[in-house]
Amino acid sequence: MAKPTVVFLAGFAGSGKTTVGRLLAKRLRWTFYDLDRTIVNSAGRTIAAILTEDGERAFRQMEFHALGVLCENIRRNAVVALGGGTLMSSAGRALIRRYGRTVFLSCSRAELYRRLRRATTRPLLRAKSGKEMRLRIATLLTKRIRHYKACDMSITVTGKTPRQIARELQTYVS
User: Fold this and answer.
1) What are the angstrom distances between the C-alpha of 105 and each of 35, 56, 85, 86?
2) Which of 52, 90, 112, 115 is 20 to 30 A off residue 123, Cα-Cα?
3) Crossing angle for the helix pair 56-73 and 47-54, nearest 10 degrees?
4) Helices (H) and strands (E) in the chain, counts
5) What is the rounded average pLDDT of the residues 56-64?
6) Pairwise CA distance, residues 170 & 115, whole Å
7) Rg of the Cα trace of the chain?
8) Phi first, then psi: what are they for 153, rounded to 5°?
9) What is the DSSP string of 42-101?
10) Separation in Å, CA 157 to CA 45, 73, 105
11) Average per-residue pLDDT in the chain?
12) How far apart are CA 106 and CA 103, in angstroms?
């Protein structure tokens, strides 16, 4: 496989895409982009507000548009943190494949719950109890896992620090 010049980080919410992405980009001296941040800047509202006010379908349309704009404007030497559900769109997957390589940051359900249990700004995960949140995580992960596993590379992040993960990914990219 040719050396990638745009690396897309995929994975569930809480898997560390943004944190690891920033560290990896810094290590490589590449530019870092966060797809969710791009959407927020464009819409002038938070992801939570968009999802709550407009619904997931409208959010996914905004996400695909933002992804297209990002891909058109970055040609090389970039790390992009995708949203947790970005790979659910076949058009989005095709666009990503055309511009770079994908890395799945694989995290156990227990670790995802630990990282997300206090999350109050994630409408798709809002729950009245820990049991309900675990169920939401499991349900969404089940829907998304085949797309995550179809990434060019998978790296387990459970039990690792963001620095360890970035260092491991740097060997893939360099």
Assistant:
1) 16, 23, 13, 14
2) 90
3) 140
4) 8, 5
5) 93
6) 24
7) 15
8) -150, 150
9) HHTS-HHHHHHHH-HHHHHHHHHHHHHHHHHH--SSEEEEPPTTGGG-HHHHHHHHHH-E
10) 30, 29, 6
11) 91
12) 9
Cβ neighbours of residue 99 closer than 8 Å, sequence gap 6 or more: 6, 8, 71, 74
Task: State both tokens at 27.
Answer: 């290590």
Spell out a b/e string for 42-77, using b for 16 or more CB atoms within 10 Å of the CB, else e: ebeeebbebbeeeeeeebbebbeebbeebbeebeee
Tell me the backbone φ, ψ of residue 82, rounded to 5 degrees. -85, 165
What tens digit of pLDDT does each residue of 84-122 get?
999 999 999 999 999 999 999 999 999 999 888 776 666
Which domains occur in the chain, in start order?
A: 6-173 (3.40.50.300)
Determine contact, residues 149/12, Cβ cutoff 8 Å.
no
CA pseudo-torsion sign 25, 29, 30, 33? positive
Q: How far apart are CA 161 and CA 126, in angstroms?
A: 26
Measured between alpha carbons, how far is 113 from 134 in angstroms, rounded to an integer?
Answer: 6
Q: How far apart are CA 88 and CA 95, in angstroms?
A: 12
What is the reported pLDDT for 90? 93
3-state secondary structure of 151: coil
